Amino acid sequence: MRRGLAHWFDRRGWSDLIISVPYLWLSFFFLVPFLIVLAMSVATKSPTAPPFSFGGDYPLVNLEGYARLVSDGLYLRAFLTSVWNAGVATVFCLLLGYPMALALTRVSRSWRNILLMLVILPFWTSFLLRVYAWMGLMGKSSWFNVLLTDLWNGAVPVAWAVKSLPMMHSNFAVILVMVYTYLPFMILPLYASLERLDPTLDEAALDLGSRPWQVFLDVTLPQSLPGLIAGGLLVFIPAAGELVIPTLVGDSAAPMIGRVISDEFSSARDWPMASAVAVALLVLMVVPTMIYTRYQAKSEGAK
């Protein structure tokens, strides 16, 4: 026993203890809740409290919820809508975030700190308050809607002119607010990846006769792929399971999967079905993460 205590207080023991803390945290706050949700997904809905049961008058394992996932069009449409909105938002975040991250690496150190602060400045404001601000901007009488309406009417034939653009309660509104919300999650990993690149490689490529766009495609872009993939995952995964944005600005006739899970838990009180949808969503999110992890392990092994 004394030897064991001495082991924990030496340098290696402290290292083991520090390393074990994240695993204990993940086990308690991720693995245990996931096992609870997984167990509920194979339960049966009942009028009791909580509204699910195992065994007795009900089957011990009920896979009806998973069967409904592939047979009920509501869940299939919700999954497709979530993947589509999250994918489009990720692409726009990439198109906007990559030039911004690249510009951050090309400015002076003093300006870089100021611009980085501006990137993370929205996090200092309540997320819900920012969504409500966008709701005001997209209203029919707002200056933002009036400006876009004037631009639209000036660019299209008179027959296509409109009094105001219907932005609220649409996939357009959901994607717009998600791009605004998750853009920093794309910029920061890209900046961290681009900031580590050796600028002499670009200079060497220019000296050898490459044009600026060739230098970007052949030198800069391939070396920034880890940051690009990490930023894409950081945007796509939370966007696909988003609840607040689709609920406030989305179309209730085409809900995303987060809204469906919330309605199953609260309105329908069908906890087993909601748990089955949540497990399926988790699997959908884990697959791209595993693909990225395997790709990263292969790239590090090749080095």
Could you describe the 3D structure shown?
- This protein is an all-alpha fold and 303 residues long.
- It has a domain at 72-269: MetI-like (MetI-like fold).
- 75% of the residues lie in helices and 1% in strands.
- The protein contains 14 helices and two strands.
- It has helices at 2-9, 11-41, 64-71, 73-106, 109-120, 127-137, 143-155, 171-195, 199-207, 212-223, 225-240, 244-249, 257-266, 271-302; strands spanning 44-45, 52-53.
- It has a two-stranded antiparallel ribbon with strand order 1-2.
- Helix 1 (2-9) crosses helix 2 (11-41), helix 2 packs antiparallel against helix 14 and helix 3 (64-71) packs across helix 14 (271-302).
- It is globular, with a radius of gyration of 25 Å.
- The two termini are 44 Å apart.
- The model has no long low-confidence stretch (mean pLDDT 84).
Helix content: over 70%
Q: CATH homologous superfamily name of the domain at 72-269?
A: MetI-like
CATH class of the domain at 72-269 reads: Mainly Alpha
Quote the distance from N terminus to C terminus.
Answer: 44 Å
- DSSP summary: helix tally: 14
Class by SSE composition: mainly alpha
Looking at the structure, the CATH topology of the domain at 72-269 is: MetI-like fold
Major beta sheet, strand line-up:
1-2
The succession of helices and strands, N to C, reads: HHEEHHHHHHHHHHHH
**Average pLDDT score:** 84
Query: How large is the share of residues in beta strands?
Result: under 5%
As residue ranges, the low-confidence spans are none
